[in-house]
Design goal:
- It contains 14 helices and 16 strands.
- It has about 400 residues and is an alpha/beta fold.
- It has 2 domains: about 210 residues, Glycogen Phosphorylase B (Rossmann fold); about 160 residues, Rossmann fold (3-Layer(aba) Sandwich).
- α1 links the parallel β1 and β2.
Length: about 400
């Protein structure tokens, strides 16, 4: 993992091709903040992204945005995320826009339809390429293979999933090796990319809006009989959401009944969760003030995912004064300070960690305070200043 340089005196002109922008996921969340950072600091920035309307270019000072519709060939990857194999039809319009904007570099976020398109035009125009890793596609591929590995003997199923994960990682590393400089949200992923893609990798963590997400939005009393255990995210197999039902049943088996799960999001596993949990409220996707209030009204944030590269939702919970319980695997463990702002545990230890905190009000209160204090050190400006500093490694002419 490489050390960051200083923010360049003359920032480069950036053409940014995110995997998603309007959707509800970590890439989209980060991308919207990246564009807002560029606008706030009057940086020359072109954001090329998929949208629902006809091709449309908007120019506001140094901020350019190009919306491109997906077509009839597109298919769903998630409820709100699609892939269009015919996205290359937009190349003439994109090339014309790039020639007008005159970027110094292209930055993509992954092997999506838009990312592949960004890579293609960068190579065609001879522009330096930066790429940021946001999604553990290799782990997702392994988790989503359970539709057929579940029919295999246990040992064979585990070995098959490992083989799928290794193959997917090899393909992803080959894709990312095309870029001259890489970014990842945590040190482990940076080290993995440097080892497999053989490129320098810089940290690109996440920031948080500590005014939007704040304990000040809590509507419930500080101490109430029923304790709310929150989850925010996609309700899908790679998020390990079935573990929430396990925790639910284990709490009841311990004789703990004064809790309720608050599950925010949507996905394929929602129907299963509804069938296996009784003390639960499903809200669907929330945004803005409704999401802020929901976070602040939680008492603990429970996030059992093994595959998240960072965990924006964990940071949002901490900013809301809500301690988080996360897994030893993945990026969220780099956010939580074990025993101070929450707990880092294995799947089998979630229930015990939750019970220990909820039955110790003094410890719970100290964790709430520490969670909020930590979040105040995580600004979006510092994140993107680091991104711009690493652009200096590219062969720029600006």
């Amino acid at each position: 993992m490489s050390n960051l340089l200083k923010m360049p005196a003359t920032p480069p002109r950036v053409a940014y091709f995110p995997d998603s922008f309007h959707e509800v996921n970590g890439v989209a969340h980060t991308s919207r903040h990246f564009q807002a950072f560029a606008k706030r600091h009057d940086l020359p920035f072109l954001c090329v992204r998929a949208g629902e309307r006809t091709p449309q270019l908007q120019i506001e000072g140094n901020l350019w945005t190009l919306e491109l519709p997906r077509g009839i060939l597109s298919f769903a990857l998630e409820k709100d995320l699609r892939f269009d194999p015919g996205f290359f039809r937009h190349i003439p319009f994109i090339t014309e826009t790039l020639e007008r904007f005159r970027p110094d570099l292209v930055h993509i976020t992954g092997p999506s339809d838009n990312g592949i398109l960004g890579l293609s035009v960068a190579k065609d125009l001879g522009l330096p390429l930066a790429a940021s890793w946001h999604t553990n596609v290799h782990e997702y591929a392994a988790r989503r293979s359970n539709w057929f590995t579940k029919f295999l003997p246990p040992e064979t199923a585990v070995a098959t999933e490992h083989q799928i994960e290794d193959a997917a990682m090899a393909i992803a590393a080959k894709f990312y090796s095309i870029a001259e400089v890489l970014y990842a949200p945590n040190p482990e992923l940076c080290a993995l990319l440097e080892r497999t893609a053989h490129r320098n990798c810089y940290l690109m963590p996440r920031g948080v809006d500590t005014e939007l997400f704040s304990p000040a939005h809590r509507l419930r009393k500080p101490v109430e009989e029923v304790q709310y255990l929150g989850f925010v995210g996609r309700l899908s197999v790679e998020k390990n959401v079935t573990q929430l039902a396990v925790i639910h049943d284990e709490l009841l088996a311990r004789g703990i009944h004064n809790f309720k799960f608050l599950i925010i999001g949507h996905g394929n596993e929602e129907e299963w969760l509804r069938a296996h949990m009784t003390q639960v409220e499903f809200t669907g996707v929330l945004k803005g003030a409704a999401l802020s209030e929901a976070y602040a009204n939680m008492d603990l944030f429970v996030f059992p995912s093994h595959t998240d590269t960072f965990g924006n939702v964990v940071l949002e919970a901490l900013a809301s004064g809500v301690p988080a319980i996360v897994n030893h695997d993945g990026g969220p463990k780099t956010i939580v300070k074990d025993g101070l702002t929450g707990r880092i545990v294995d799947d089998s230890e979630f229930t015990g960690a939750i019970a220990d905190i909820l039955t110790n009000p003094a410890r719970h209160d100290s964790m709430r305070i520490a969670a909020r204090e930590y979040s105040l050190t995580m600004s979006w400006d510092s994140v993107f200043e680091g991104v711009y500093s690493a652009y200096q490694e590219l062969p720029l002419t600006c």
